[in-house]
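Before the break, one more example. Copy the sequence into your notebook; we will annotate it together after we see the structure.
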Amino acid sequence: MEILAIIPARGGSKKIPQKNIMDFYGEPLIKWSIEAAMASNKITRIITSTDNHEIAEIAKNLGSEVPFIRPEQYAQDDTVDYPVYKHALDYLEHNENYIPELIVQLRPTTPVRPKDLIDSGIDLINGNSNADSLRCVTIPFQTPYKMWSITGDGYLSPLFDSGIREQYNHPRQLLPPAYWQVGSLDIIRRDTIINKNSMTGDNIIPLIINNKYAVDIDDGLSFDFAISVVKKYGMFPDDI
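Here is what the structure looks like once it is written out:
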């Protein structure tokens, strides 16, 4: 089975310039996602999709292929994942006749991944033929059943309805379980991207990760949190 890891690493970032190659624990941030892919026993190819030549050179030196430079229209601040991945798969098919079955998305901004996470996720989706994709989730630090929106006339309204009267006054333990998606790992069938025009499809299976590893670097505060997690648990913890 051809299993392709794609590491999306756009050059632009407003909050942290050149975020994907910033120094993180003594190495370029992107290194940790490339190393996680290389440590997998199941991934058969690793590429980086970037619009930036400096990132491309660093990625190649770290062991990733960079078969193309991503077109500018797929590297804007508001660009979502789908056109980035559709472009990569179309390029590889048309230029190399390369058609993988599974796509593993490894975001550089989530560098902490338990060592068996990727292969466990691949086993899960391979064991469920109805699954269009797999997404990594965790127990959120705050339950969404205590979150609010503000109505047009200025009053609070519960953001979600659990069916429990005054759910926001209940202890967390009495509320329904909820899960927060994290960027540590996504696995998508190629058919889902190409034929369903989606990064998830309809049937998404979960891989639950301990929330102490839920790192997503977006600003200085989350960077500091990520460093504290690495110092405490390491870059590739033993448990998921």
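The beta strands are 3-8, 23-24, 27-28, 45-49, 102-105, 133-138, 148-150, 156-158, 180-189, 204-208. Residues 3-139+179-233 form a domain with the Spore Coat Polysaccharide Biosynthesis Protein SpsA; Chain A fold (CATH 3.90.550.10). Try to locate both features in your own notes.
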